[in-house]
Specification:
2 copies of one chain form a homodimer. By secondary structure, chain A is α+β, with helices and mostly antiparallel strands. In chain A, about 35% of the residues lie in helices and about 40% in strands. The first copy, chain A, is built from 2 helices and 3 strands, in the order E-H-E-H-E. In chain A, strands 2-1-3 form a 3-stranded antiparallel beta sheet. Chain A is elongated and about 50 Å long. The relative contact order of chain A is 0.35. At the A-B interface, helix 1, strand 2 and helix 2 of A face helix 1, strand 2 and helix 2 of B.
């Protein structure tokens, strides 16, 4: 099974990297009003079905992949 | 208009961060066979329509957001 985890800074959390990217894009004259930078993790995992895979990935997020205090998580699961 | 850019290391490109994440997940006894780490950029930009927005974001990727030699890019555009 494949899963993609999108990890973003929550609204209201300072994101200096996003501010730097937004500033650089505006200097290049792109009409960007806001930029936020997060990370993504692509996973291949053994799981019987998408429901089990999602449950596994939720536990991975809680234990390692994201900080729930300051980050939000979006999980996409698909069969290989 | 809103856009999300997903930037991933291309297949075959070394990804030490992904290897570290995969190793850590396996130590936690998750059945992960592969992990790759990339980044995401959420953008708010001024554009007349999704087609123009996508063209702008493609130029942003070429000029700043990604290294086409080693990274692949996936762009999602949606109206606000």
């Amino acid at each position: 099974m494949r899963a993609t985890v999108l990890v973003r800074p929550k609204a209201g959390i300072l994101d200096p990297q996003g501010e730097a990217v937004g500033g650089s894009l505006r200097k290049l004259e792109f009409p960007v009003t806001r930029a936020r930078v997060g990370r993504l993790v692509d996973l291949e995992l053994e799981a019987a079905d998408p429901v089990e895979a999602r449950a596994q990935v939720e536990r991975m997020c809680a234990e390692l992949l994201a900080n729930p205090l300051i980050e939000s998580v979006e999980i996409h699961v698909e069969r290989e």
